[in-house]
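Practice problem: predict the structure.
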Amino acid sequence: MTNDRNLVVSTDGSALSNPNGPMGWAWADHQGGDADAGGASNGTNQIGELCAVLQALRAHPGERPLVIETDSQYAINCSTTWVPGWKKKGWKNSQGKPVKNRPLIEAIDQEIQARQGSVRFVWVKGHAGDTFNEKVDALARGYATAAGKGDREGCLPIEGWRSLLASPYAKGTQVPPTVEDELDGGPQVLDEPGRKKVRLDQEEQKELAETAVESEAVDAEQAKSVEATADADDGIPDPDVADGQEDEPSTDSKDTTDADTPDLETKDSGARGLRASGRIRITPPPSGSSMFTGQDLHIVGSIDLDADIDPDGYVTIHEAPFRLHAIEVRD
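Answer:
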């Protein structure tokens, strides 16, 4: 729950043709209409999600409690549950590999620890009609589209650039010259680490939202191929990131008061404890794509059901619509 004293902000990350497609991030206040967005010519939606959280934290310092709403379980866990275990292991996962996106995750942790007011994370279901979730989705997707076309210069927190350039998806990334200088030890090009000097005005917000609408047709076409993905949050961590959570249980506290113990609240009113299990077949299969080269894939999506259910819970489905939200290529 929120109250009038809380600062409430929504965040989102977007990657077109995730991974290694144009990337965007965005945050938006629930009060006052303030918002910001950025992106790059390359990236992943996970990097975008983390950039959005970091920028939101930096844009909202002070003593007032901060509530961050996001549809990314990955961003929430990277900001809360998994961090203590990674620190204990020297930022290595259980396989002894370096934690991905460490510069961003460390920066988020530092911002939370340094913030005077508490920080609380609320998970919201993506693409489910939440006004502010839809707004940041449009802003992030709009910037990603513009960055991919070269219409907007790349804009990430410096930790975002470091995470991106250290990833397998950096080839061909267009890095602004001033950012290259800062990465090489030159002066900061931003007024604070990672924050733009001027946020989006209302006209820019409108422009990005319109750009996002134009890109929806492209997204729909890409979703038909298993090599492309709609730019909604994938909802899952990279395989070696998930391993970092083994030592730290999730917190389900609803009222955090300590800034160094942010918690998670769920805003999905549709969840009623129901679960589905079993094996289903998605058609057309990955092997049917001419672009498929045998990668191990992980998908996130939803099935629209309209069927009878027997007393034991079994449902028979046939040609049920499947909505693809995201695809991850396993390392």
